[in-house]
Amino acid sequence: MLPIVVENIHKSFGDVKALQNISFTVEEGELFGLIGPDGAGKSTLFRILATLLLADKGTASVNGSDVVKDYRTIRSQVGYMPGRFSLYQDLTIEENLNFFATIFNTTVEENYDLIKEIYEQIEPFKKRPAGKLSGGMKQKLALCCALVHKPKVLFLDEPTTGVDPVSRKEFWEMLQRLKEKGIPILVSTPYMDEAILCDRVALMQKGEIMMINTPAAIVADFGKPIWAARADNMYHLIRDIRAFEGTDSCYAFGEYLHVTLHQPVEELKDHLKAHKGLIITPAKAGIEDAFMQLMQEQNEAV
Amino acid sequence: MKNYAIVTKELTKRFGDFIATNAITFEVEQGEIFGFLGANGAGKTTAMRMLCGLLKPSSGEAKVAGFDVYTQTEKVKQSIGYMSQKFSLYEDLTVKENIRFYGGIYGLSNQQIKDKTHALLQQLNMEKEAGHLVSSLPLGWKQKLSFSIAVIHDPSIVFLDEPTGGVDPITRRQFWDLIYEAADRGVTIFVTTHYMDEAEYCNRISIMVDGKIKALDTPKKLKEQFNADSMNDVFLQLARAKS
Amino acid sequence: MRQFLVFVRKEFYHIFRDKRTLLILFGMPVILIVLFGFAITNEIHHVKIGVLDNARDVYSQQMIHKITSSGYFEVDQNLRTADEIESTFRKGDIKLVIVIPDHFGDKFYHEKKAPVQLLADASDPNTATTVINYATAIIGQYQQEMTGKITLPLTINTEVRMVYNPSLKGVFLFVPGVMTLILMLVSAMMTSITITREKELGTMEILLVSPLRPILIIAGKVVPYIALSFIIACIILVMGFFIFGMPIKGNLLLLLAECGLFGLTALSLGILISSITSSQQTAMMISMMGLLLPTILLSGFVFPIESMPRPLQIFSNIIPAKWFIIILKDVMLKGSGLRQIWLPTVILGGMTLFFLVLSVRNFKTRLS
After folding, report:
1. Mean pLDDT value of segment B79-106
2. Taking an 8 Å Cβ-Cβ cutoff, which residues of chain B contact chain A?
3. Could you give the CA distance from residue A71 to residue A50 in angstroms, rounded to a whole number?
4. Domain covering C47-149, topology
């Protein structure tokens, strides 16, 4: 029995097609990522799986229970962390945790081993109202609250959005450890660099899944060679590379530009010879390169 | 002598016992893209608010566009543009109405607003959407539009507070194209971001930890200094070091 | 059961940690009572009047003295001709002009008819009516005294006695009114706001995705606020009793039970409102427009239902506050027992049940 099965899910809000033909499965003990920007439909998908919304078309099941018929079973089995911080700001860490433990018919002590590691990091502040915590601590508390009833599946909707890189890194390390405990996790993020931390990812854009695969396979499948370019004046470099007729795409990537070409790279170098400090070297594609290429294809298909 | 857009000296802000920004000193050159990084709660927002003239510093000095942030806040506000992820356009006004409104706020004449609107729509390739409500635009377009509106009065400095959160990778880069283009015109850019790859686009970066500036240099030199291969590493090393 | 208790405890945390709201909750009834009790009153004191005395005889002087000595009126101007009446009213100080005909005493004793004219400034109709009523009453009294001196053949005498509220005190009307208003405000508005706040914060999402049943969420919201409104009702009763001497003639337990019933009615309305809105702001607007205004205007609290146009009179029957005010007045002033007030009680109970069922059915187990 697979933890999550989604088949041909469609959902519209008025004229807006929030989700179109979404299908995927999450395997036992898998950390599955939904990668895409705001408006890709990630939160809608979570809400359908958390039995909060009804899909227009298609079926989905969580732990073998149908999201429409058996919604009560699912509600007692999943841990759900919504996109925005959804705890009581005027309640302390301790009170929030106890509250959520009780409404899930359990106690903090009963499943303490599961949250211990995370809770210990915020325990010194347990008397502080949740509204006065930093972004990273709020996320940790929210994760504790979602885990307190030992859920069979974990839904985390953009847990790292708006959180600084340090807290983000810590958060992903916690997810890795939870995964080792055998809890299947469905997580969404707009940060492409977090994709490589998942076992498998679905790249989403405008309500559609553009690709599902392991991060390594997605990168390996990137068909074209990528050239990394830099020069002293980056802005002029971008302009000149885009103006070059042999350029397919040119985007800034950190300190370099990533360029794909349909003409030999020597011609590009020749075109740019006026630039000072010009460096052009082969580079490896990342998830973000793949995402942008797929986006471009999707945009052209429209 | 160099032309500085922002100069601060021992700039400090206390809230009660809590020191949000602790004696920060730095300069930003005119036309520079200056990345202002730091973990949540490191004091970035407070520092930025002081520089925008929204918050009175507790002590220290700061000059923005040559104006003192204590005494000349009105002049400071006239010479800066501000955009944040939260700063939104009026969703129930059309694109054109938003441009008109903000143009009006900054005291542009009707003719100037007309010319600006035309130029801006053309630059953003949004002529067709001029009469659409902002709420109907995709997020990325809104971000680009609000940036263009933030610079509608040709400020010499623009403050960008996490301008690209949640935006798709292509739009994010298109947004940076706008930033580069503005910097090329000589506009100083002061930007905060959580995307470390974006930090690399900046000419110089400062990293704040617990109210203090812990590092300030070009991305290249910072990576050499910390023996790291990406800005992400540099950031993690600095922020981790505190605990 | 434990889930429920924890939920209720959480609600109390919210209530007690939001100091500002708490202050409003308990401050408002006190302020309203004081305001209605001392400032906004429809009783009159020292109203300035003008007198055009065409008779200038003993009897007219006596009557004027009688009027001014009551304490309700004081003569501000003595007019000489009828032409001056208009201009005195224009100045605005004078609310009433008494015109006494010439040969007042003669006419009274010999013609048995002495028409005294009362002219009131009706730009404020409420004051005008009250002023006229008071003046008429005093003049009537004077007439009786005079007729009493010489024995006349029996004339029909109207004797008015105000029962249940002999001194015609406004307090007796506004205490039930304020109580109704506050209970409505606390119960309906506060519940609808707290539920929509959970929707806005996103906590409702988590509550829905928990095994907690919707009925339990509703009950958990109801209990703290019913307790709160009960305390507030008691504060108002105590203030009314000790400060304004409002009698509680009926059974106190019955009175409290009825307060509880009305609190529940208001709560069910609040839940109903929250089930059709998702923002605190709209919830507030709906409770203001849809509940508070009718409670103030159509319940008989401010305007007597009897003097409303027929359609409004019929419409007022669906305002729960109307029935509660009837119950309150009957129990407090008349000392009625359940036997006398069973009808409004049943109506109120029926309404509560209806709203409760409707809101529980409307309460969604999903987001849309």
Report:
1. 85
2. 38-42, 138-140, 162, 165-171, 173, 176-177, 180-181, 183-184, 194-197, 200-201, 219-220, 230-232, 235-236, 239-240
3. 8
4. abc type-2 transporter like fold (3.40.1710)
